Hints:
6 strands; 7 helices; single chain; alpha/beta
Amino acid sequence: DRKKKKNLKVIGMALNIRPVKDPILIKNIINIILKKNSFIFLVVGRDRDNFWKKIVKKNQNKIYWFNSLPQNKMKNFYNTIDMLLITSKSEGSPNIIPEAFSNGVPVVTVPIVAIEGLVINKVNGSISQNRNPKELEKSIIYVKNNLPKLKKNSKYFFNKNYNFIKTIKKISKY
């Protein structure tokens, strides 16, 4: 079905619902984006208070949710999505970003201090100006309209910065 609609893009999210992930923003951005009819969501992560169950029920055939995926199946997740969406209020050092980049998946995010330098605006993804859903929508549309370049840059960024041999050499200097 997706192949018939070349313009249909898949937004991925991998998160367990909890307050720091900003469920209100998630709900608002989903409502805005799904009105565009050119997006679907693929979500992996544990539910809380039936958050995902309610959203999936309301948006059947537009949101696909898996409570969990084994680590060896996450490659399939990344190969299916066109972009990864992050809505967190704060993050540590999320592994999900280099995982996405290693698969050539650009990241769309709200401003988060911990990921500065990982997601480079309009290079390997897009960072919204603030946490406003309309601003986040602009970032999603930007990525959609520039996917080939951003996918290539994401993979390049990963290869340049997460190269195993380079990392070993850096560590061995200490």
